[in-house]
Amino acid sequence: MNIHEYQAKQLLARFGVSVPPGEAVGTPDEARAVAKRLLADGHARVVVKAQIHAGGRGKGTFKTGLQGGVRVCASADEVLERAQAMLGQVLVTRQTGPEGRVVGKLLIEAGVRILREYYCAVLLDRAAGCPVVMVSTEGGMEIEEVAARTPERIVREWVNPTLGLQPFQARKLAVALGCQGDLIRAGEKLLLGVYRAWWECDASLVELNPLALVEGPAGRPTLLALDGKVGLDDNGLFRHPDLQALRDLAEEAPLEVEASHHGLNYIKLDGSIACLVNGAGLAMATMDLIQHCGGQPANFLDVGGGASVEQVTAAFQIIMKDPNVRAILVNIFGGIMDCDVIATGIVQAVKDTNLKLPLVVRLEGNNVRAGKQRLKDSGLPILSGDSMADAARTAVRVAA
Ligand code: GDP
Ligand code: MN
Prior knowledge:
Strand content: 25-35%
Bound molecules: guanosine-5'-diphosphate, manganese (II) ion
Distance between the termini: 36 Å
CATH architecture of the largest domain: 3-Layer(aba) Sandwich
Helix content: 25-40%
Number of strands: 19
Structural class: alpha+beta
Number of helices: 13
Number of domains: 3
Largest sheet: 6 strands, antiparallel
């Protein structure tokens, strides 16, 4: 699960990471009010930042033609104007795809004078089997680009998960960023906080890009998280009801949200052959087979081992809402599940949803004879596949 920048910054602040003062708003008037307050507090500039679950906002473009999802403003009226132009509009960035994302909220933040932009992230190094903290002097640009062009400018410290990030490691990273004097301590504190946030929230990623060296009070340089991205591990979310509450359904694919309400594991893909399968492994194998036969799967869909008639119907309804779908392939291996129950569900769902798309069904396993008979008796134009390969070939053929 991803969260917004303003939520990530609130979270990081709880772990002692310095972030600029600011507030998230949903209307232009609120934006102006927050801007007024920040200006009255002595900040010379106010930044308006579009809140969407995608990066590259600074260089993004609104579908209205307006440039930039991050804008530095000098007055409360300018903030009002910007907020009016951004809220409710679609922002397209390198990470959103051409369809873009609707901006529902803005972060109104104190503007700072940036001296340097760095990069900092904590994630799991799967190859090393432990957390890794990464920093780079090349902040503000995509880390993939830095890794490709100047990999030597990325410095890593691997963390023993039992001990956690050690202060000496954090200081080493701060020195690698070029910190000197008091800034080494400040960097150490910030990095320890970022690591602790990653660990205690069961995050999969915490990324500050940029982590900025800015002109602080009395002209002294300080470190500040100017951007914050936090990805949370869905499998750890049950331990964090406070983090679950940060979920923004407007940022998730609508069909995937609907599927989750029915306890279905559905992931939308770009192909034309929808699959409905019981078991994640079989679903993956089915998708492989579709590709092997020259087709493209429209989705991953695992209805689980004990799907009910309601779930199968919901699954068909979700599949049919995808306009790219040209054929449906049902692949069920009845291990525990009774094939006759599944067949009943399929027949019911086809009738309930008034399905018009070609449907190929491959059933195997427990009580398969009765199941196949039921499909036949229904009088529906269901194509049956005797083997998995046979069913996949048929689905690819009818989809074409
Ligand atoms: P992203 O483009 O979605 O990654 O959004 P960021 O939050 O990283 O903002 C993009 C860029 O805007 C940053 O790299 C900064 O250069 C700039 N920016 C963000 N906040 C401020 C600020 O407070 N003051 C100034 N001058 N620039 C800022
Ligand atoms: Mn950024």
